[in-house]
């Protein structure tokens, strides 16, 4: 079912289009009524809200590289990033760490957000 497969994001217009592509012709009003009867509601996209405050008086780490990524040997320049990923089971985090010298070298850690066991 498209409603479940799309993680409850398809509204009546997209459902109508998908059904038509599969040979099922149904009007938008009828589809909306059926969705209401079955209590199928699509998830609304939330407005982006910044979670960091750039206006503070706390010390900021110096930019040692100044965007110059030109290492001459391994283990001179490492870069990292952390991102949170929303899943049906809750929030997960993904951390990437990379030695800039080796383009294909990439270490990944993943686990539940704030799970102490994720770094094992």
TrEMBL record:
Domain HTH-like: 3-48
Protein name, entry field: TnpI
